[in-house]
């Protein structure tokens, strides 16, 4: 049964709607932090076919896996029973939510790889992510957001996706591309080129927070976000769940998601423009 949470006041919800991201303090107690950490350790020993290592040789490790709850019991319990669902339901202003995805990220000390600026755009409709810090993560190593970018009414793809040559994409962008298909962006008016935020940081209102274990970030999927490497002396681990409501649809360019999941043996029945349904995306109705 999902855990209830302390009330999230209306001002916080309005801030989320306005800015695209908020930080909630201490919403996950020690048992949830330890459970997620144990799940990540088990997952590293038993990676799924979707496991990714984004780091080049040398320079630390940057690992992630997706939908691991199917075979990692600790992650299954966290995804379905932690406060995440109740937080998502409140932030999406709905009585029940669907778990779209569970994932986690680990950057070891010395990791130079930056999570590039991007947003999540294969779902249309209400869609939020909840990132839970499992370690102390100071602002200089934490996830960052461009305030209000979810309201720009644009879909962005990295600059490298618009290149016409066959040069290899960076590891993180290559992973991102697998869920957006072989898009011909040269004549595609759906997507805009992602601005070079790092080169012109002073042009943007960038949000970030110092995080303690148990703090979480809640953000709308189309809020541009990215994260630096890890120059700290300890791992930075984040447990992530992503949530939609019953009106969310698979975007017209989301066919690659279905193909990717089918290729890896996931039993999904999704159609372009159709609602998010199926056993992989369970409905949770948190207690009031």
UniProtKB/TrEMBL annotation:
Chain segments annotated as transmembrane: none
Keyword 4Fe-4S: no
InterPro entries according to UniProt: Phytyl_CoA_dOase-like (IPR008775)
Keywords: Dioxygenase, Oxidoreductase
GO molecular function: dioxygenase activity
Organism superkingdom: Bacteria
The keyword Oxidoreductase is annotated on this UniProt entry: yes
Name used for this protein in its record: Ectoine hydroxylase-related dioxygenase (Phytanoyl-CoA dioxygenase family)
Organism lineage string: Bacteria, Pseudomonadati, Pseudomonadota, Alphaproteobacteria, Hyphomicrobiales
């Amino acid at each position: 049964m999902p855990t209830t949470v302390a009330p999230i006041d209306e001002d916080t919800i309005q801030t989320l709607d306005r800015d695209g991201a908020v930080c909630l303090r201490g919403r996950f107690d020690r048992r949830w932090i330890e459970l997620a950490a144990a799940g990540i350790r088990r997952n590293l020993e038993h990676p799924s076919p979707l496991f990714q290592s984004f780091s080049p040789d040398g320079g630390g490790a940057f690992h992630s896996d997706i939908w691991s709850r199917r075979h990692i019991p600790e992650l299954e319990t966290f995804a379905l029973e932690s406060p995440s669902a109740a937080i998502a339901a409140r932030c999406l202003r709905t009585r029940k939510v669907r778990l779209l995805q569970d994932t986690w990220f680990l950057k070891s000390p010395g990791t130079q790889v930056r999570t590039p600026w991007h947003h999540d755009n294969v779902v249309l409709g209400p869609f939020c992510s909840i990132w839970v810090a499992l370690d102390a993560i100071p602002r200089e190593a934490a996830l960052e957001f461009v305030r209000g970018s979810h309201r720009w009414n644009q879909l962005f793809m990295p600059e490298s996706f618009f290149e016409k040559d066959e040069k290899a994409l960076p590891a993180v962008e290559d992973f991102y591309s697998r869920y957006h298909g072989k898009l011909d962006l040269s004549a595609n008016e759906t997507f805009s080129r992602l601005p070079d935020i790092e080169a012109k940081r002073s042009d943007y209102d960038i949000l970030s927070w110092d995080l303690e274990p148990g703090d979480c970030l809640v953000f709308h999927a189309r809020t541009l976000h990215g994260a630096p490497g890890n120059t700290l002396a300890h791992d930075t681990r984040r447990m992530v769940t992503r949530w939609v409501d019953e009106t969310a649809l698979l975007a017209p360019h989301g066919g690659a998601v279905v193909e990717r999941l089918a290729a890896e043996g996931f039993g999904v029945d999704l159609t372009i423009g159709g609602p998010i349904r199926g056993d992989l995306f369970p409905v949770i109705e948190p207690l009031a």
